[in-house]
Design goal:
alpha/beta, 10 helices, three-stranded mixed sheet, TIM Barrel
Length: 343
């Protein structure tokens, strides 16, 4: 009798151990699966982060958080960036013999040297720091619309058609890569009377570079645009809105006015057409002399542009290029980067 009880107890003990082993194995599998899922999510999130457009700062705040990382193609022999092959554009007209010379002559008549003084004027120092121009103090109901061109050109034709329809002139800040890939688009922008602005050669965080590297970033795209069109760019916008005193000084020494913005359309967040229109037209900083930031290559910008223009016009604003809005000399800046005429 005792032997039978002992065997039953042993059998029950074995069953309990087996259940514990099964339970432990199940929990372990669940934990491993959860860890794998977390790693997968973080990997996916990191991948998505690399594809997000650039972030931009609010007024008088500088950020170096670069959420869009540019890939640089390097020449295996020289180690220098390789210019990408030009991409065909629907803006490109058929080229006939003698067209290039004629285009160069036309462009020479609209080079910005007639608009800007030979040397960059004005005072940029505020509380010991050099600031860029965020907006302009003016009694006139004028605002400037600007586009950063650093990605694709899928919507360039649509944007230009809308601007042409309303006879609006704006400012396009272009990277060196964009200029190299879409040279006919650059010519089309200039032919329509828009400002050509400098957005750096490789879309780098300028505050992390030396003075020499800053000037190289600025002048590389400057020389490429000049060679392509004959146009001397004089407006510079740092990629990501990232700057420090040295960046502003380097740009000035290269003959450039450094331009930021006080109204961000947030079109790069891809929230939709209505979001862009509402963000700009009801922005707390929108007023006389505002500089508005948009991007070509964003998902909804071209779709929102016409309503954005009419919305600003209904508020009584005239939309002008930045070269017309800003003062070129005899000015100073206040603590929020507002350009003010010297008394």
């Amino acid at each position: 009798m005792d032997e039978r009880r002992r065997r039953r107890r042993l059998q029950k003990a074995r069953k309990k151990r087996k259940k514990k082993i099964i339970l432990f194995s199940t929990v372990a599998c669940l934990l491993l699966g959860t860890a794998a899922l977390v790693v997968s999510c973080r990997t996916t999130e990191a991948s998505l982060d690399n594809d997000r457009p650039e972030t931009v700062p609010d007024v008088a705040r500088v950020t170096s958080d670069a959420v869009k990382k540019e890939t640089e193609v390097q020449d295996g022999n020289s180690g220098l960036p390789v210019s990408p092959e030009p991409v065909s554009s629907p803006l490109a007209p058929p080229v006939e013999e003698g067209d290039n010379q004629e285009t160069e002559k036309q462009n020479e008549s609209i080079v910005s040297s007639s608009v800007f003084p030979e040397a960059v004027g004005g005072t940029y120092t505020v509380n010991g720091r050099e600031l860029p121009i965020y907006c302009v103090e003016t009694e006139e109901k004028k605002v400037a619309l600007s586009f950063d061109a650093a990605w694709g050109n899928e919507d360039t034709v649509q944007i230009l058609d809308i601007l042409r329809k309303y006879n609006i002139k704006t400012t396009f800040f272009m990277t060196g890569e964009w200029v190299s890939k879409f040279p006919e688009d650059v010519k089309a922008l200039l032919a329509d009377g828009h400002d050509l602005g400098n957005h750096g050669e490789n879309h780098k965080n300028m505050s992390q570079l030396s003075d020499a590297e800053n000037k190289e970033e600025i002048m590389a795209v400057h020389n490429r645009v000049k060679e392509l069109t004959g146009y001397e760019m004089r407006l510079f916008r740092p990629p990501y809105g990232d700057y420090d005193s040295e960046v502003v000084t380097s740009a000035k020494e290269c003959g450039y006015y450094t331009i930021q913005w006080d109204v961000d359309s947030l079109d790069w967040k891809n929230f939709g057409v209505d979001s862009i229109i509402d963000t700009v037209c009801n922005h707390k900083s929108l007023g006389n002399g505002s500089i508005i930031l948009c991007h070509n290559g964003a998902q909804y910008t071209a779709l929102a542009l016409e309503s954005l223009i009419t919305g600003l016009q209904e508020k009584g604003y005239e939309i002008v290029p930045i070269s017309e809005l800003i003062m070129k000399e005899n000015f100073h800046l206040n603590a929020i980067g507002r350009q003010i005429k010297d008394s």
